[in-house]
Write a structure and sequence with these properties.
Layout lengths: L1 H12 L7 H12 L5 H11 L2 H18 L4 H24 L1 E6 L4 E3 L4 E9 L5 E9 L5 E2 L4 E4 L4 E4 L2 E7 L3 E11 L3 E3 L1 E8 L8 E4 L1 E4 L1 E4 L23 E15 L11 H7 L3 E7 L4 E6 L14 H18 L3 E6 L2 E6 L2 H12 L9 H6 L1 H4 L5 E7 H4 L10 E6 L1 H5 L18 E3 L5 H7 L2 H5 L2
Parallel strand pairs: 1-13, 2-14, 17-18, 17-20, 20-21, 21-22
Antiparallel strand pairs: 1-3, 3-9, 4-8, 4-11, 5-9, 6-7, 7-8, 10-14, 11-12, 15-16, 18-19
């Protein structure tokens, strides 16, 4: 029994291993893969995973082998270094003597229109320049490249996605290369700066320089037909305008017509209604020019979706549609948006200013709506109608009661973030209904034309 007790005590006294073999293996793998200097190692990886990095490491290995094994290996090291020097000096020298300029025959265009571009390349070197490529400025995400998939034209230009490749440029020459594209997004082209680059002859390292822009292209947002301006108070007029031969809400009587749902009861002609046993209303002459201020919420936090199908781009298109349609109808229109505050005016020049301001809006910046409404341009605007364009994200925290001179256009953030239009229906769950509720991109064109009473029944 004593021996059994000693065996049991010895068994209990044996210490258990701290880690199992599998745990040790995982710990060693984690320790071996732990990055002590992540920023420095990222730079090393970017260099190593390039032709220049591979050739440099091969030259170092050849140098060590030549010093340790045999001097003949030093010839390989010298050949690799020669390839590196030539591969870096040649493209650098080529770009020193080549100058590129891009221009557009048209100054302005609209989303979806086919436009032309011209690239002028001047080569001051006595020998030809090969392997030139223009990158950036015409991204495939912003332009339609359906007709430019790796084809070589007669003038030696090869288009592939967003790159414009030049086969060769003769020495001491000036060459013009033209191509066409369809911008799918508003903006100023070339976007984010185009660069002329080359890595000829070995592709060891690519050098680049900015392409000069002699005439930029301003692409306006796409616009849609809109209904007439909604009627506001009689104070929202421009003094001094004469009566127009157009149906309005003030002025002389132009005629009568049957009652339509939404007509004001004050315009009912009771003697004619009693005679015809149905409601008859008077059509009055328009004697003033409305004044409208459009406020666009472009804060990225208020919008959803990306690219040209997101709610932010559609809010800009809606503002452009209102401005174009109402300015062409003689309305005085102003604009308040991130970075711009245009006073209300009329005419073709005002339309160009409004659409240019909308086209130049940056893609990732925007002033919150609360700051826009608190700006001096909005606070001092008291003689007209204010149209505010935002999404339901801001509408939920918006005012409990909108002013009688305000009209809110609210886009559904969920409807513009998904392509499933059936999943987003109904109105926003807010304290009050907006003037115009747009649930999805597919509904926007129809609602801009017939979305309110004046648009459905006429002015």
């Amino acid at each position: 029994m004593g021996g059994v007790d000693r065996i049991e005590k010895t068994r209990h006294a044996t210490p258990a291993p701290l880690l199992s073999p599998a745990a040790w293996k995982r710990w060693l793998q984690k320790a071996a893969s732990y990055d002590l200097f992540p920023q420095w190692s990222a730079k090393v990886r970017r260099f190593v995973y390039t032709p220049l990095g591979i050739l440099s490491m091969a030259a170092v290995v050849a140098l060590l082998c030549g010093l340790v094994l045999h001097p003949r290996v030093l010839a390989l090291c010298g050949g690799l270094l020669a390839v590196i020097v030539v591969g870096m000096c040649w493209p650098w020298l080529t770009l020193r003597g080549v100058h590129a300029t891009v221009s557009h025959p048209r100054e302005r265009a609209v989303e979806g229109e086919r436009v032309e571009a011209t690239l002028t390349v001047v080569n001051r070197l006595p020998w030809p320049a090969w392997g030139l490529v223009v990158r950036g400025g015409y991204s495939a995400a912003d332009t339609d490249q359906a007709e430019s998939r790796s084809r070589v034209r007669d003038n030696g230009v090869e288009d592939a996605d967003s790159e414009i490749r030049l086969a060769t440029v003769a020495g001491r020459s000036r060459t013009l290369h033209g191509w066409s594209f369809t911008p799918r997004r508003r903006g100023v082209y070339p976007r984010q700066g185009a660069r002329l680059a080359t890595a000829f002859p070995f592709g060891v390292w690519e050098f680049g320089k900015r392409v000069q822009v002699s005439r930029e292209l301003i692409v306006w947002p796409r616009t849609y037909p809109v209904g007439p301006v909604p009627w506001a108070d009689d104070e929202s007029i421009v003094e001094g305008n004469v009566a127009r031969n157009k149906v309005g809400s003030t002025g002389d009587i132009l005629g009568v017509r049957p009652y339509r749902r939404g007509d004001s009861p004050r315009r009912i002609h009771w003697p004619q209604s009693a005679r015809h046993d149905r409601l008859i209303v008077c059509e009055l002459q328009a004697t003033h020019r409305p004044v409208v201020q459009i406020v666009v919420d472009t804060d990225p936090a208020s919008h959803s979706g990306r690219g040209s199908h997101g709610s932010r781009e559609w809010a800009i298109r809606i503002a452009a549609s209102f401005a174009k349609g109402w300015l062409e109808a003689g309305v005085q229109v102003g604009l308040v948006v991130h970075g711009s505050a245009l006073a209300a005016a009329s005419g073709r020049a005002q339309l160009d200013r409004v659409l240019d301001a909308l086209a130049r809006l940056p893609d990732d910046q925007g002033t919150p709506l609360s700051q826009l409404l608190a700006s001096s341009a909005c606070r001092h605007f008291g003689g007209g109608l204010q149209v505010i364009i935002t999404t339901d994200r801001q509408w939920q925290i918006g005012p409990a009661r909108a002013s009688t001179r305000q009209r809110w256009v609210v886009l559904s953030a969920a409807g513009f973030a998904t392509t499933d239009t059936a999943a987003v229906q109904g109105s926003p769950a807010a304290r009050m209904a907006p003037w115009l509720w747009i649930p999805s991109p597919q509904d926007a064109p129809h609602l801009l034309r017939y979305g309110w009473s004046e648009a459905r029944h006429g002015s």
